[in-house]
Design a protein that fits this description.
314 residues, alpha/beta, Rossmann fold, 3 domains, 4-stranded parallel β-sheet, 15 helices, 15% strand, binds 1,3-dihydroxyacetonephosphate, binds iron/sulfur cluster
Length: 314
Amino acid sequence: MRVKQLQEEILDLKKNCDVTILAHYYQTIQIQQIADYLGDSLGLSQIARDKANTEYIIFAGVDFMAETASILNQDKHVLIPNYESCCPMAAFLTPEMVKDFKKKNPGLPVVTYVNSTAAVKAESDICCTSSNSVNIVKNISKDFHTETVLFGPDANLADYTEQLSKIKTIKMPENGHCYVHSQLSIEDVEKRKREYPNAKLIVHPECIRAVREIADFIGSTTKMYNYVKDYNSDINEFIIGTEKGLLERLAEDFPHNKYYLASDKMICYNMKKHSLELIKYILENLDDKNYEIKVPKQIAERALSPINKMLDYS
Ligand code: 13P
Ligand code: SF4
């Protein structure tokens, strides 16, 4: 009841504000339901660039997503409902480390996963997401006439990308990972497969290789969503190898299927720091600078080029 009431209050407040609300699939279903746009990292960057034509953008996602939206919209106000919502993976790679890798590997392109700081993006040749990394690496390696790229910070995505593109990735660093996806073990997944032998296993590329190898499908959150949407069979059961928010979205949109979370641990507590209460507060206080994500101009200008290059190749 309280949820419905808060959602209505948010939608009412929104009518009088020049605001677009963007939400990632890992948000709670209650937040997903009030968003103007929902998507994966790539989709939300494209929407931030092409469709969010309002003065204010509220981004229900982790910090790097809001930063990317801000870099793409330097004349707008990008607000994050909880400024403690950060992606720990980004901390695996600093700009100094990137400079060091470049020095040791002259001439190789730097590909950074968008799950990185703006300062790291500023040192990169191109960005990528989990949905386009294979295509990006193929394209940038052609541009640089090389069969090897520097790739960070996710070593699992780098490994997945290398397997599919056949382009060698030097991992920056060797151990960068997402605590949600990398903890999904082969034992967890085999247990679920024993429990639900007819279910299709779909996983995110941030999962470890052993888990990816026994999956029926690997893809970004939007690609996983589309796999379920387009799946045509009498048996519609899916084991979801990514964050719980995607399972909630699928259950709402395709309720005739059955979904099982690959492990009870698949929750990103960083994504879940947002709440309807905080979104309502922001709508009532759009000029509260504490919630505004603003990348320093010098960094934003340098980070814009690798982000735009990624969007052009996507
Ligand atoms: P997507 O690229 O699927 O949105 O994933 C982002 C992310 O943070 C995965 O953990
Ligand atoms: Fe970062 Fe992992 Fe959370 Fe995605 S799921 S935002 S990579 S911590």
